[in-house]
Amino acid sequence: MNEYIGSTVAKLKTNSFSGLTIVIGNESCDLDTAVSSLVFANFLYWQHNQLKCKVCTKEYRDGSMEYKDELFVPVINVDRNDFPLKTEVAHLFREKGISESDLIYRDDYDLPQLLNSTKSKVVLVDHHVLATKDKFLAEYVTEIIDHRPLDKSGWCYKPDTRTTIEIVGSCCTLVAQRIKDLSSLVAKDVDFFNAYPACSEMLHATIILDTVNFSKEVNKGTPHDEEIILFLESLLKPADYKAERLNELNRLLAARTDVSHLSAAQLMKKDVKVIGNVLVPSFPILVKEFLSRPEALKAVSEALTQTNCDMALLLGMDLSEGLKRDTAVFSDSKPQKAVLLSKFLEDFKSPSFNLSPEQLENATNCSYYCQLNLSASRKQYIPALNQFHGIL
């Protein structure tokens, strides 16, 4: 994989390519997004080389003529300086020998200019609703792989865009399935997985983390996730699959929750999305713990200003002693609007979040709740926020 990454970076820097395909995930850049982007771009590179006509390129192979090939680029959708905030992503990449310095980050290139400068395609993974700043990508999108409920409200893609959209625990499940299906078309069913074992290992680890090792309490794993895990394990052949799954989960949970060195402002950037005019950060600790940190609400206010958002919906999760979730709605500029959002989420039924209000000291303009529906994550809050914006 390092050879693929290194050659891709070199060719991109020197403009040595005839066409460009960018694979990019959502703006939160969590492990599912980062691994889906990296693995699927690597696969497209492998697939291209399997199908490339050797006769057509024969005259270039002796070095007498310059040959520019297709380039398949995974974009880690976070600024380079912010990548260390993605603690579980950085941990897994280090574990697999992937150098952070060799990756391609969001701010490394002017993406509109890059895409416009050559024949370009974009593959979206782990999202299909584009953030406002990413609307320019739509005209280039040729494929979408996502595990969120289908949202056609802002659909702006070409009619022939290839879509794989299915509600499963991890987008990596769908990426693995897509690779498996495409490989079978060239009678090489498992060749990619065997050629790039680090990809198989990262897909496996991410699905285990996203489903919390198929925890019944979290209730994220689906039969399709389980099917792909068993397929990957048939290739990886762990000596004790139960022990390996548990070890993977514990290692990644420890890396994700290792945020003691991060300030409140950094935590606000660790895993965040913007839905309409609502900032939605997700913490690997409880919101209650985040709000107890020095200048936490100041960090929220500053993040709202920087993103031109009116309100913040803070989502917290703790797995240290069984699963716990909590949430808070905050606004210092539009407190009445925040009250309306709080009431809307309290009454929301698809699904019900089972929000139990509690009072927190030193949390002005903040409505805080314990979330009793433990299976509801940010993915379930997004449709609620979209509905809230629709009725204002």
Automatic annotation (TrEMBL):
Residues 249-389 form the DHHA2 domain. InterPro entries: DHH_sf, DHHA2, DHHA2_dom_sf. It comes from the Eukaryota. One of its GO terms (cellular component) is cytoplasm. GO terms for molecular function: exopolyphosphatase activity. Gene3D superfamilies: DHHA2 domain, inorganic pyrophosphatase (n-terminal core). PANTHER family: BNIP - RELATED, EG:152A3.5 PROTEIN (FBGN0003116_PN PROTEIN). Belongs to the PPase class C family. Prune subfamily. This is DHHA2 domain-containing protein.
